[in-house]
Design a protein that fits this description.
- The structure holds 2 protein chains of 2 kinds.
- By secondary structure, chain A is an alpha+beta fold.
- In chain A, 51% of the residues lie in helices and 12% in strands.
- Chain A has a single domain (71-389), classed as Cytochrome-c3 Hydrogenase, chain B, CATH 1.10.645.
- Chain A has helices at residues 2-26, 71-75, 80-87, 95-110, 116-144, 150-169, 191-214, 217-223, 231-236, 242-245, 253-256, 278-301, 354-359, 362-365, 371-381, 385-389, and strands spanning 31-35, 47-53, 56-63, 178-179, 182-183, 321-329, 332-340, 348-352.
- In chain A, the strands form 3 sheets. Chain A has a 3-stranded antiparallel beta sheet with strand order 1-2-3. In chain A, strands 6-7-8 form a 3-stranded antiparallel beta sheet.
- Chain B has one domain.
- Chain B is built from 12 helices and no strands.
- Chain B is an all-alpha fold.
- Classes of the chains: A alpha+beta, B mainly alpha.
Chain lengths: 390, 350
């Protein structure tokens, strides 16, 4: 593991030396390439400043903040129920998952707990938004590498999941369904059977992507051994989610945190991969999508009857205190540190979003790689701009 | 053989041939764009593609051309304006030069050139020049990277292409494309002349190498690093808009058509049908109607080969630049050289 790090370090030093020597002999300068803020590879407005020597990157740094929307500040002028509207726009592909940790933090401060049925439905919707998010990643992976067909398959099958989320919550992208103390509504009639059918389709989609993309020699040669993050480096940079598990760290908050959710009621597996390269990161996400469909299937079979809303006052005032809750979101660990002064709205909210920490490794990771590999590495790190800039 | 063209004066024949050249480049290009780029890609990706303009969207290309022609012709401030404007035209001209030697029937040819395939391989390299100056004159870093990548790639893949053709030339004993067609259709395999002797059978390795090489020459995926829309935005065409982009666009698909025609001439028997079917023995026996059926046969074979090219393009991810070079120099070229050696030995033995 550390050997690879040394090799990368050496190639960096060598390229620096080569650059310096060339500059002396031929008086050539490297080229500074601004990848972004408007660039197809950054799917959003991330800017990567890369210093190139030919096609090799000698230095790179992400410049984020082009999409900063000030959500932490905005939460201070909203009441608690209004905050979910804001936060489900952070990671816009898996938006229901953004609401959950905030609501859990507020519930923790108030000392209420959602009824069991609500916990089950929350978990199911959480996993559905993970599937909606990651299935798009699996398709987009092909586009980043030049294969244009998988993304349409991903859009086609993601549509089923979005329809499910829509029929349960009323919103495709921004459900805004979670309430302090439970959920807005119960599931509509027939939803459970429909979901089972869709989960079967999604498993088919995973097999299809595995055949189409992961089994492809060109895909493998583009991703295997590229952008290797050793275990200790991954831990040092505070990576989370699939990026961390791909480096061999067995860490999943769904299993490790004791939250009032239903993950421990299902039988599923946390996948890890020893390699830490781009392929491992993609492969982990593929396996996770499969596990998510399994979780949803099992929970659908064991949803208890009962109310979906606990007894909470009409006007929610959260007692004074501070709470930190984080969950395993599609992109990694997402948490909210909520400070309450006993008002209608939070006094201060600190949002820990996964992508911000995940891209902080790019200056280290992009050293010495070629320009085409920048795209592979960025795609496999899988960030969403809203999740970086908030 | 009845010569229909003999009654037309020389200038009329020349005019007909020039018009025929335009049709032979633009008609396949339009068909390829509609059938493959618009429709086949859509069906592969579980969508319908254009449906509004004309029946099943068949007039979509005209709508697109109209749109491009209306757009502003932007030349970047820092660009070398004259060269920047010239580049797409050079690319398209190389396609027209290429089609000049392709025969479409016993009399339906533009120039009956004794060293036709040599000429075709030579002029196909001119497009590299256009792409390189497009990349350089745009004054854009992405364009420059794309242009340099294109130059490296096209030069690397020209070599296996030439070497693959040599096998055919050895077998046919001529460089004249018309004679290569005749040699295939009048030939026989093991005394059976039912299907003639298309070189795709005896030169199968050469055919595969040639198809891979034209895939790379056309910069179609998995060899599309010069354009690489996820890395280099659009490579050497990043700064082009309006009708100059249109010329690049048409050039791309027209070249695909013309290369497929050359491949079908070299390996699939071109415009001809096996001569044994109609009891012909040489080119002089051929009936006049072949001048009309020939282009259609050629068109069918071309569409078949373009289908393969596009099929691969829509399903494969892209290689990296160094992997591509390694594939050409360490994979294709040694195999092509071996193919030439084996072909020449067998030619001498039989």
């Amino acid at each position: 593991m550390t050997m690879l790090g040394d090799r990368q370090q050496l190639s960096y030093i060598a390229s620096q030396a080569a650059d310096a020597r060339l500059n002396l002999e031929l008086e050539t300068e490297g080229m500074t390439l601004n990848i972004g803020p408007q660039h197809p590879a950054t799917h959003g407005t991330l800017r990567i400043i890369a210093r190139l020597d030919g096609e090799q990157v000698v230095w790179a740094e992400p410049a984020c903040g082009y999409m900063h929307r000030g959500y932490e500040k905005l939460t201070e002028v909203r009441t608690y129920p209004q905050v979910t509207t804001l936060v489900n726009r952070i990671d816009w592909l898996g938006s229901f998952a953004n609401e959950v940790p905030f609501i859990l933090a507020a519930e923790k401060l108030m000392g209420v707990e959602a009824p069991t049925r609500a916990q089950y439905i929350r978990t199911i919707l959480f996993e559905l938004s993970r599937i909606a998010n990651v299935s798009l990643f699996l398709g987009d992976l092909g586009v980043q590498l030049g294969a244009i067909t998988p993304v349409f398959l991903a859009f086609r099958d993601r549509e089923y999941v979005l329809n499910l989320i829509e029929s349960a919550t009323g919103g495709r992208f921004h459900p805004n369904f979670d309430r302090i103390g439970g959920l807005k509504d119960d599931l509509p009639a027939g939803w459970i059977d429909e979901t089972r059918a869709v989960m079967k389709k999604l498993r088919g989609f995973c097999d299809q992507i595995e055949d189409l993309l992961f089994g492809n020699e060109i895909f493998q040669s583009r991703t295997r051994g590229i952008g290797v993050i050793p275990r200790d480096v991954a831990l040092q940079y505070g990576l989370s989610g699939a990026n961390l598990r791909a480096s061999g760290v067995d860490w999943d908050l769904r299993r490790d945190h004791q939250l009032p959710m239903a993950w421990n009621k299902a039988d599923w597996k946390v996948w890890t991969h020893p390699d830490g390269d781009s392929f491992a990161r993609c492969w982990i996400r593929l396996q996770e999508t499969r596990e998510s469909t399994k979780i949803v299937d099992q929970l659908l079979g064991s949803i208890p009857a009962g109310p979906v809303m606990a007894k909470v006052p009409k006007i929610i005032k959260v007692p004074e205190g501070e709470a930190w809750v984080s969950t395993e979101n599609p992109l990694g660990e997402m948490g909210y540190y909520v400070v309450s002064r006993g008002d209608l709205g939070p006094f201060r909210v600190k949002i820990r979003s996964a992508s911000f920490n995940n891209i902080s490794i790019t200056p280290w990771l992009l050293r010495g790689v070629y320009v085409p590999d920048i795209v592979t590495i960025l795609a496999s790190l899988y960030f969403i701009l809203g999740d970086i800039d908030r | 053989m009845t010569v229909i063209l003999a009654e037309i004066p020389y200038w009329g024949q020349s005019l007909l041939r020039v018009l025929g050249g335009l049709v032979a480049v633009l008609l396949p290009a339009g068909t390829i764009v509609y059938v493959f780029l618009f429709k086949m890609m859509s069906f592969m990706q579980s969508r319908l593609g254009p449906m509004e303009a004309g029946p099943y969207g068949s007039m979509q290309l005209f709508a697109e051309v109209g749109k491009w022609l209306q757009k502003e012709d932007i030349v970047p401030d820092r660009a070398d304006a004259r060269i920047f404007k010239m580049a797409p035209i050079i690319v398209l001209v190389s396609t027209f030069l290429l089609v000049a030697v392709v025969p479409f029937g016993p009399d339906a040819w533009f120039t009956d050139f004794e060293t036709g395939i040599f000429y075709a391989l030579a002029v196909s390299s001119i497009s590299v020049l256009g792409i390189l100056i497009a990349g350089w004159s745009s004054a854009n870093k992405y364009s420059l990277l794309g242009g340099l990548r294109a130059a490296g790639q096209l030069i690397a893949y020209e070599l296996p292409m030439v070497l693959a053709v040599i096998g055919v030339v050895i077998q046919a004993g001529t460089m004249n494309l018309q004679k290569i067609v005749v040699a295939q259709n009048s030939g026989s395999m093991f005394g059976i002349d039912a299907v003639g002797h298309p070189y795709v059978i005896s030169q199968f390795i050469g055919f595969i190498i040639f198809m891979i090489a034209i895939q790379a020459e056309l910069t179609q995926a998995p060899f599309d690093m010069p354009i690489a829309e996820s890395e280099l935005v659009s490579g050497y065409m990043t700064e082009y808009s309006g009708f100059r982009f249109l010329i690049f666009f048409i050039g791309e698909f027209a070249t695909a058509g013309v290369f497929a025609m050359i491949a079908s001439v070299l390996f699939l028997g071109g415009w001809g049908v096996p001569f044994a079917w109609f009891g012909w023995t040489s080119i002089d026996d051929i009936d006049n109607w072949m001048n009309f059926a020939g282009p259609l046969i050629m068109f069918t074979k071309m569409m078949l080969l373009v289908f393969i090219i596009m099929w691969i393009r829509f399903s494969y991810p892209r290689l990296r630049e160094d992997q591509l070079q390694r594939f050409a120099w360490k994979g294709l070229i040694p195999v092509a050289l071996g193919n030439i050696a084996v072909t020449s030995i067998l030619k001498v033995v039989f």
